[in-house]
Amino acid sequence: MSEDPTILDQARRAMEASPDDAGARLRFYERLADGELFLLLESESDGDSITPQVFPMDAGNVVLVFDREERLAAFLGGPAHFAALSGRHVVRMLAGQGIGLGVNFGVEGVEIAIPAEAVDWLAETLAHRPEVAEEIPREVSSPGEVPERLLIGLDAKLAGAAGLARFAYLAGVSYDSGRRGHLLAFIDALPGAEDSLALAAGEALTFSGLEAGEIDVAFFAASDAIAGRLAKVGLRFDLPDLPRQEMTEVKAPGMDPDEPPILH
């Protein structure tokens, strides 16, 4: 019985259906980075480090990742040692090592080999950090016509930022300096979450494929006067609440974004 396609499957098919569409390629790599991947290991993790199994191919060495645990088991025909990691952690660990990715090998119609050069490019793209600037908004207004692919990208990124802020507004903005642009304003952000939210907004813009696009990111409390002005003119994005946890979970190796596993 055929299985339902995953988000990554859908992005891959869209990319291959439109080989000249740079936006479709960017969306595939974005889904790869954002999704959870199951990385095949040589042996069981010791809790501090992992050793991926490396496979030689004509185009170079690759490690194997799958976007479903069942796909990994089916490829090997039985149980296997693996680490569950986000795609961004996998490419960050592999960057500069001349190792590519074999994605969903053995799954007919969706397997794809990603060369080491593309892994390095994705790691470099994800490493970009927003620039910090201090300007005072003079006026906020309707965002006007915003490209649909950017709105879709923001919606997807912010849906993955559960619990980091209550909501956000996208609006037009002008500053005392005379500069005009677009502002993504987060309301009641969790203390310490500012960098993650700014990075998510930046990635949404990068992977939208808008070459000349720019978005300023700011953080306000709901009690700030500007929050009321933004509510009148801005396009609102609601961030989901964190799911309630009834018990403390022990994270698998590599699941802590601040302490990725060490590759051997």
Main sheet overview:
6 strands, mixed
Q: End-to-end distance, in Å?
A: 38 Å
**In total, how many beta strands?**
13
CATH architecture descriptor of the largest domain: 3-Layer(aba) Sandwich
| CATH topology group of the largest domain | Trna Endonuclease, Chain: A, domain 1
Q: By helix and strand content, what is the structural category?
A: alpha+beta
Unreliable segments (pLDDT under 50, ≥5 consecutive)?
Answer: 246-264
Tell me what portion of residues adopts beta-strand conformation. Answer: 15-25%
Please, what is the CATH homologous superfamily of the largest domain? Answer: Uncharacterised protein PF11572, DUF3234
Verbal overview:
This protein has two domains: 7-127, Uncharacterised protein PF11572, DUF3234 (Trna Endonuclease, Chain: A, domain 1, 3-Layer(aba) Sandwich); 137-238, Alpha-Beta Plaits (2-Layer Sandwich). The chain has 264 residues and is α+β, with helices and mostly antiparallel strands. Strand 6 (100-103) and strand 7 (112-114) form a beta hairpin. It contains eight helices and 13 strands. The strands form three sheets. Strands 1, 3, 4, 5, 6 and 7 form a six-stranded mixed sheet that branches. Strands 8, 9, 10, 11 and 12 form a five-stranded mixed sheet that branches. Mean pLDDT is 86; it is low at 246-264.
Summarize the structure.
The chain is α+β, with helices and mostly antiparallel strands and 264 residues long. The protein has 8 helices and 13 strands.
Provide tags for this entry:
Trna Endonuclease, Chain: A, domain 1, six-stranded mixed beta sheet, five-stranded mixed beta sheet, 8 helices, 2 domains, alpha+beta, single chain, Alpha-Beta Plaits
